[in-house]
Design a protein that fits this description.
The chain has 243 residues and is an alpha+beta fold. The protein is 24% helix and 38% strand. This is VTC domain-containing protein.
Length: 243
């Protein structure tokens, strides 16, 4: 399957590129949260907790044919992911939402962020609602054109802890309490119980020049590097595609 990120869109993003590695690990639910935190803090790169724990919320977007989903499943080397991210409560008045375009090229990725106008997430939310938000948010024209081709496909939330190595070159995030909600472009009822994911996700992020040292960090984890996408996991939990 060919990626639906067009050449002109890649050209626009290439001019701003600042790629980095993002290594993901899935910790099965047999690992307690405190065990995972201790594993991070005992690493010889001396990770310390920074910032503060907070709830992360995302609305993911895709085409009607779920092109971005299938690009990820099939391992297409150049692909994208479109989402709106905010922190705090999942529903109600959404303050300071950010449109994020995540670009993946081989083993490295990049993320571009654009501040959006506030909106309300409740049962009256539709694709028309969010498209009006995009139009009112002064997005660059190539990004605005990209958003016209997609609609909401998944709502998720999770708790996140943040860690930074002593040399300030490596960041680790620890995600847990993952929830996946169905979201539709026309009709929504968020009273339905969301799907739960008992696994925990650890992600190691660092610049291209520091890849030589990354294995010295990851080999100390009691779990293996694996391909993981919250978007793919979420879609799989709420939707069944015909075989």
């Amino acid at each position: 399957m060919k990626t639906n990120l067009t050449g002109s869109e890649f050209h626009f993003l290439d001019k701003q590129q600042n790629f980095r590695y993002e290594r993901k690990f899935t910790a099965p639910n047999v690992f307690r949260l405190d065990e995972l935190e201790n594993s991070v803090k005992k690493n010889t790169f001396l990770f310390r907790e920074v910032f503060h724990e907070r709830q992360v919320n995302n609305i993911y977007f895709d085409t009607a044919a779920y092109n971005d989903y299938f690009d990820n499943v099939l391992g297409v080397s150049e692909r994208k992911k479109i989402r709106i991210r905010w922190y705090g409560n999942t529903f109600g008045d959404i303050k300071k939402p950010v449109l994020e375009i995540k670009i993946k090229k081989g083993l490295v990725g990049d993320k571009w962020s654009y501040q959006l106008k506030s909106f309300k997430l409740d049962n009256d939310f539709t694709n028309t609602t969010v498209q009006d938000v995009f139009k009112a948010s002064n997005l660059p024209l190539p990004i605005l054109e990209m958003t016209k081709m997609v609609s909401p496909t998944l709502l998720n939330s999770y708790s996140r802890k943040y860690f930074l190595s002593a040399n300030n070159k490596f960041r680790i995030t620890l995600d847990f309490n993952l929830l996946y909600h169905k979201i539709d472009k026309q009709f929504n009822n968020f009273k339905f119980v969301p799907a739960k994911d008992e696994n925990k996700i650890i992600e190691l992020k660092y610049g291209l020049s520091d890849d030589t040292y990354a294995s010295a960090i990851t080999t100390q984890f009691p779990f293996r590097l694996n391909k993981n996408s919250k978007y793919v996991n979420g879609v799989n939990s709420i939707k069944q595609f015909p075989q």
